[in-house]
Amino acid sequence: MAEQLLIPKLGNTVEEVTILDWMVADGSDVKAGQEVLEIETDKAVFAVDSTADGVIHQGPYSSGD
Q: How many other CB atoms are there within 10 angstroms of residue 25's CB atom?
């Protein structure tokens, strides 16, 4: 069963984030808690962790989106 990788709420004023880098390749095995994505807000850069074990599928999203 698929699990969605959601961007966590980063504050009350953050409305947009930009994907800086995928830290794992599409189709890679990941473990819960593993950093898989680096995002940027208007104020800071954050790592996003996987919430489940499985295989990452990046879908239509790439760096810069």
A: 8
